[in-house]
Amino acid sequence: MAESLAARLRGLPFEVRQYLLITGNYWAFTLTDGALRMLVVLHFHQLGYSPLEVALLFLFYEAFGVITNLVGGWLGARLGLNRTMNAGLALQIVALSMLMVPAAALTVPWVMAAQALSGIAKDLNKMSAKSAVKVLVPSDSPTAGSALYRWVAILTGSKNALKGAGFFLGGVLLTLIGFRGAVIAMALMLVAVLALSLVQLKADLGRQKHKPKFTEVFSASRAVNMLSAARLCLFAARDVWFVVALPVFLYDQHGWSHWTVGGLLALWVIGYGGVQTQAPRLTARLGDSPRGVTVALALLLAGLPAGLALLPLAEVGWLVAGLLAFGVLFAVNSSWHSYLIVHYARADGVSMDVGFYYMANAMGRLVGTLLSGWLYQSQGLTACLWVSAALVVGSALMALALPREAAAR
């Protein structure tokens, strides 16, 4: 099968072939990443872990993601994005292998260490994929900006659709073959993907001609810095209620099964990914000012968690409807941000600007994850929703410092 796929890829234009390889690599990784997150949340909550303890299992996953994006962007510029992407796949295989041990050996420190490796792997893979798009899109074309937005939207949206499928897969695998069987199956799939990637992905993709210093990873661009701050707030606003609070609330308060919880979150993320692929059309009517579009999208989003917090959460229909509406607006916000960072990034050294930006993204996830466990355990889901609304408003305030000029689309 791998040989047949490789033969088909060779018949396509080089840039398209590389883009498909990168996207396929990213898809496979994301599927296992989403499944593993759902497996860990549901399995360890079932074992009696409190919401805060479950959140702490992801502490190193998110914390190492912050570090990885800084170091990974620098390594990508020095070594090539193909190497950092393949390194991410290999580390995910190691992380999954660590979770194959007998149940008695799955102690908190051991699981946190495996999650740390998974966090490093995920951000190496994501940074490499997003940076490679900037390299592959021809910059001298009059429609380069529009093509860049479309390619980024397709990559990001399809990735999130697969992450949603991963949530569902995690819930189903946990029900059918148990925790250990699930991680073995996912590791075997990634071994096959890594073998294809090692053979087909271009060497030195995105590698800079000069060897950049590590200090260059800290962006000197005001636009990159402010967009990164806005991204931090945006993703903290999502994860403060989505990562731990919502799955545990549905499981505990409404008696949902593992696969039902996983299925709902899967549908949410799949739909979210689908909306992201259409973001260029959806934002076209908002103008092309980076500042104006970013602030408008954030303010629209902030009203949803605030509105949900005022509704009776014992009525699960309101919660699901609000969750779906939040997903649509969050998807457009996220896709627009993802386009802007690639647009603002330097052509030479793109991985360092993108790495810095996704460092802020990882910091937002870290803050949101910890707040999700702590706030839900101490104050409940309503408090998580109010904090989410406040964080989205913070994202809008950060975006006020973005340039006014039109973005090239």
3D architecture notes:
The protein has 409 residues and is mostly helical. Helix content is 79%, strand content 0%. It contains 16 helices and no strands. The two termini are 38 Å apart.
A few lines on this structure:
With 409 residues, the chain is mainly α. It has helices at residues 2-10, 14-46, 51-57, 59-79, 81-98, 108-136, 144-176, 178-200, 222-242, 245-253, 258-277, 279-283, 290-309, 316-344, 350-378, 381-399. Helix 4 (59-79) runs antiparallel to helix 5 (81-98) and helix 13 (290-309) runs antiparallel to helix 16 (381-399).
Can you give the mean pLDDT? 76
Q: Tell me the total number of β-strands.
A: 0
Radius of gyration: 20 Å
User: What distance lies between the first and last C-alpha atoms, to the nearest angstrom?
Assistant: 38 Å
Q: Work out the helicity level.
A: over 70%
Shape: globular
- What is the structural class? mainly alpha
Counting DSSP H or I runs of 4 or more residues, the number of helices is 16
Low-confidence stretches: none
> For the report, how would you describe the main beta sheet?
none
**Strand-residue fraction?**
under 5%
**Helix and strand run:** HHHHHHHHHHHHHHHH
